[in-house]
Amino acid sequence: MKNIKEYNLDELKEELEQLGEKKYRAEQIFKWIYVDKVKSFDEMTNLPLELREKLKIEYTMCNFNILKKQESADGTKKYLFDVLDGNAIETVLMQYHHGKTICVSSQIGCKMGCKFCASTGIKFVRSLTAGEIVEQILAVEQDIQDKISNIVFMGIGEPFDNYENVMKAIKIINNQKGLNIGARHISVSTSGLVPMIYKFADEELQCTLSISLHATNDEKRSEMMPINNRYKISELMEACKYYIKKTNKRISFEYALAKDNNDNLKDARELVKLLKGMLCHVNLIPINKIENGSYSKSSNENIIKFRDYLNDNGIVATIRRELGSDIDAACGQLRRKNLKQE
Ligand code: SAH
């Protein structure tokens, strides 16, 4: 059966036409799903009964079941969703004073193999469909009975390794007649799939692009992130410059500070050299130690020193607040959990 959440409004209109129905029915259905957030066709009370029955035969609503929900002392919530095929994914809700943010997963597992990330070392299963990405947001909003203001593609998976579905999901999330979350409130984070950065730049969306940089020279970056063997830092920087030129938007560089690895002043100096003059911002993440991981967190003192050095030398840098670390919901801590192992 087809998932009704795979369609943007225009596509839904086409679907309805194919069913021999009027296009305006698509608008009604779209509103029920994304504005009223109903979970069944039966609740779409302005549709004729006959149409509701027809829809039930043709489409599923793809409502994820919550297998587990954990709440952190800081209000962060981590959801383990049953994606209805025997697999499960994690989605995180973070509460900031400026609003609520959802960190969505884009794949079941990840192929990138970053050494410091908990998604590494588990089998890659498949990419999520656009509808499954969108459903993470709907399921959280239904659970908390509140509206989300920001989306970050920073959960499990590499969004640019699932490029088409991620773009499709962004367009559905964006639709003013639906969830209506503006592109400026959506961030996509990549480990650095260079060709996709060019492609993303050409979309001319207003989304924020985050680049997981984490090191300033190829030797160190390749050691931490195997993707660097495919695309070297110089190629990555070229792509970033193209993105900035094309979109006139600032890039956010993620830099996870690991003790005695990439956190001394020499690294900070190299980072300044690498980013000098670029329209960018550096997001420093105190690295979260993962099970059996070889990287551990820098001292607070070091993190502050690192940030101050960047700021003093013309690179805007902030330290990311650590949310949800007590429930393994912080950056890089998410793991795909197989239903059968639960
Ligand atoms: N694959 C994408 C998005 C998922 S990871 C990417 O690599 O960007 C989201 C962010 O968390 C990335 O910046 C990633 O490098 C970072 N991250 C992964 N593991 C981490 C850890 N153990 N501690 C801190 N940050 C981590």
Question: Your description of this structure?
Answer:
The chain has 342 residues and is of the alpha/beta class. 35% of the residues lie in helices and 19% in strands. The radius of gyration is 21 Å and the shape is elongated. The two termini are 27 Å apart. S-adenosyl-L-homocysteine is lined by residues 112, 114, 116-117, 154, 158, 189-191, 212, 254, 256, 285, 287-288, 290, 331-332.
Distance between the termini: 27 Å
The fraction of residues in strands falls at 15-25%
What would you call the shape? elongated
Number of domains: 2
- Rg, rounded, reads 21 Å
H/E element sequence = EHHHEEEEEEEHEHEHEHHHEHEHE
Biggest sheet details: 10 strands, mixed
Q: Taking all residues together, what is the mean pLDDT?
A: 95
How do the strands line up in the largest sheet?
Answer: 3-4-5-6-9-10-11-12-13-14
Reported by name, the CATH topology of the largest domain is: TIM Barrel
**Would you identify the CATH H-level superfamily of the largest domain?**
Aldolase class I
The level 1 CATH classification of the largest domain is Alpha Beta
Portion in helices: 25-40%
Number of strands: 14
Number of separate helices:
11
Quickly give the structural class.
Answer: alpha/beta
Q: Stretches where pLDDT falls below 50 for ≥5 residues?
A: none
Small molecules (ligands, ions, cofactors) in the structure? S-adenosyl-L-homocysteine
CATH architecture of the largest domain: Alpha-Beta Barrel
